[in-house]
């Protein structure tokens, strides 16, 4: 977070504390070790939030990571430490991972990393990318990605399903008789 910005207070502080509580040092360390296995960087793979932020904040390592998946995913990696150049790197990474198959709900916003708003979502994005790594001949991370399970039903099976009355329609069993809107229940 920028050192010139006031801290959060009230409900915003509570919301930020809830977001920060989701962060897991072990999973972050596993993620950094996976990045190191693929790219050769970073030297420090400690999983604490401050280290993760320091390693990833300029976006260069993230861009090098996606370029290992598919050469040229990020054509220009900015080496400048100027804020907008670093955020361009992070944004280029995010665009590249979406093209590599990471679902948009598992990505993060640039500001989540740049201002250390939600490092948990950064780790979730990297974990999702780690599941995709096997598809690109790289070491994968995390649980194996599920496979498609398509079911084919015959015309007879589909017609038989139309005759079943769903429990969502309700039934008349167990209802209290004599009670309607506006009447009082006699006890």
Automatic annotation (TrEMBL):
One of its GO terms (molecular function) is actin filament binding. Coiled coil: none annotated. Residues 25-134 form the Calponin-homology (CH) domain. One of its GO terms (biological process) is actin filament organization. It holds the Pfam family Calponin. SMART domains: CH. One of its GO terms (cellular component) is actin cytoskeleton. Belongs to the calponin family. PANTHER family: CALPONIN, TRANSGELIN. This is Jg3809 protein. The gene is jg3809.
